[in-house]
Specification:
about 350 residues, Porin
């Protein structure tokens, strides 16, 4: 669980919580920091999987963990703004993320993402800015409820003639965690990521799609790889470094149906705490998503469907497995969700 948090009726203030964290024995302090990071990294991967589906109908942010996200390695000719909304209902097998006896519960994590992408002048690069907010609610484990908001800035190399080229990038992403409902702050972090994306697109005959500036409409199968190193500064303790490797594949089944699978593999190394203990986490998170894009004809016209954000219904399943050198922090967690997804361009 997250010892830095409190129930809604508690009278402790954040400073007292931080002081308590600082006084914990080293393995327990590592457990506190580790669970903050494990939870947020896993939820980011699930959210991005929902936003990375290969539908060209529902607009999606041009910043994502999965290289198979549409348009991620593609140059744009003019600034683009997008807003995305996720409205999920989920099941979580281990809300507290503990080794044994975690609470099985329904959960919801409505999220909004506002993004803005611009070409970097005459350079072969694109700049993407994001602002996001999310509210996690556990029906049978309310002590785990958490509200977050964050931002990110990403500068990425893109080849204007080849959207399947290697695409290195640098990203900076701060985030703040709060007690419900966006009340007292419990933690803050700043991520510095240096990595690359690479994808391979194939048509319905499983032949490589010829190199071009925009191959999304011609792609039926896409295989991708994201890899990056990260430095995370965190308050309260402790900061860490990490390596992420994220292979992914997507398949356009028909105009209205698609499927995708991604696997987040990561290792995280925490800085030594005040008594010299260094936590180590290793994580595996496969995420499978099937999406049904609601036909525009059901809304009466393309214009009306666009006004509603070209909604889609996403079904997702994932299994998080964590191994740690901190006592009692290795665990497994199964999660499923059904999510209404919508997106708007402006």
């Amino acid at each position: 669980m997250l010892p830095a948090r409190r129930s809604r009726g508690s009278g402790f203030v954040p400073a007292a919580a931080i002081a308590l964290l600082s006084s914990l024995p080293s393995p327990l302090l590592a457990q506190v920091a580790g669970n903050f990071d494990v939870r947020s990294d896993a939820q980011d991967a699930r959210d991005d999987a929902l936003l990375a589906t290969p539908s060209l109908a529902t607009p999606q942010p041009l910043s994502n963990l999965y290289a198979t996200a549409p348009g991620l390695e593609q140059q744009i000719s003019a600034p683009q703004g997008r807003f995305n909304l996720l409205l999920p209902l989920a099941y979580n097998s281990n809300a507290e993320e503990i080794a044994h006896g975690g609470t099985q519960t329904l959960q919801t994590f409505p999220a909004g993402n506002l993004s803005w992408a611009v070409p970097a002048g005459s350079l072969p690069a694109r700049i993407t800015l994001n602002a996001n907010a999310e509210s996690d609610r556990y029906f049978r484990a309310p002590d785990e409820d958490l509200d977050t908001y964050g931002a990110s800035g990403r500068i990425q190399y893109v080849d204007s003639t080849d959207d399947q080229a290697f695409s290195p990038y640098f990203a900076f992403a701060p985030r703040w965690d709060h007690l419900p409902t966006f009340s007292e702050q419990t933690s803050a972090r700043q991520d510095f990521n240096l990595g690359l994306n690479k994808r391979y697109n194939f048509d319905s005959s499983f032949q490589p799609v010829p190199i071009a500036s925009d191959t999304s409409a011609s792609s039926v199968w896409s295989f991708g790889l994201t890899a990056f190193v990260q430095r995370r500064l965190r308050e309260p303790q402790v900061s860490s470094s990490a390596v992420f490797v994220i292979p992914s594949v997507s398949y356009v089944i028909s105009k209205d149906w698609n499927a995708s699978v991604g696997v987040e593999l990561l290792g995280r190394w925490f800085d030594p705490n005040s008594v010299g203990f260094s936590g180590r986490d290793w994580e595996v998170l496969p995420v499978a998503t099937v999406e049904y894009v609601i036909p525009a004809s059901l809304f009466g016209s393309e214009k009306i469907a666009n006004a509603f954000g070209r909604p889609a219904l996403d079904f997702q399943a994932s299994y998080l497995r964590v191994w740690s050198n901190s006592v009692g922090t290795s665990f497994g967690q199964f999660a499923t969700s059904a999510t209404i997804k919508a997106g708007w361009r402006f």
